[in-house]
Amino acid sequence: MERVVVEALASGWAVRTRAFDNLLVFRSGRAAERAGRNLALTLAGLGEPAELQLRLKDGSTAARFVCLPPTEKDPDPLVVGVRPRARRSEPGPAPARGEARTTGI
Questions:
Q1: How many angstroms separate the first and last alpha carbons of the chain?
Q2: How far apart are CA 49 and CA 39, in angstroms?
Q3: pLDDT of amino acid 75
Q4: DSSP for 27-84?
Q5: Within the chain, what is the greatest distance between any pair of CA atoms?
Q6: Cα 79 from Cα 44, distance rounded (Å)
Q7: Cα(14)–Cα(6) distance, rounded to whole angstroms?
């Protein structure tokens, strides 16, 4: 699965992916987010599942989406919102009584 990341730079915003050798750089977060979304949808439309990560200026993940390729019954890529992973420094809520804490990998 290809990963597309939209993240802040010192001055502006970037879209980063292994599909390109260089960053795509934008003045606004809106433009970078739009380009990242379009790239993820294009990859999915070509049959390559893609994960889109939108990061805040502090580096934390604001949102994650998985873009899945079209199927025979639906010609459009499917975009599914996924809960952002907790940072390792943010343990999350305590497990309920009798439940074990799991870690995301």
A1: 15
A2: 11
A3: 87
A4: SSHHHHHHHHHHHHHHHHHTT--EEEEEE-TTS-EEEEEEEEPP-SS--SPEEEEEPP
A5: 49
A6: 9
A7: 6
d(CA 93, CA 9): 31
Q: How far apart are CA 79 and CA 69, in angstroms?
A: 9
Helix (H) or strand (E) holding 20: none
Confidence tier at 104 by pLDDT (50, 70, 90): very low
* Beta-carbon contacts of residue 84 (< 8 Å; ≥ 6 apart): 60, 61, 62, 63, 64
- Write down the pTM of the prediction: 0.76
